[in-house]
Amino acid sequence: MYADPAKLWGHIQPRPTHSIYFDIIGDHGWVGFAMFASLLLLTLQRLRRLQRQALWLPQAAWIRNYALCLQISLIGYMTTGTFLSLAYFDLFYAIVALTAILDREMREAVAKEPAKTFAQQRLEGTLSNKMKTEPYLKPLKT
Question: What local confidence, expressed as pLDDT, does residue 137 receive?
Answer without folding.
Answer: 45
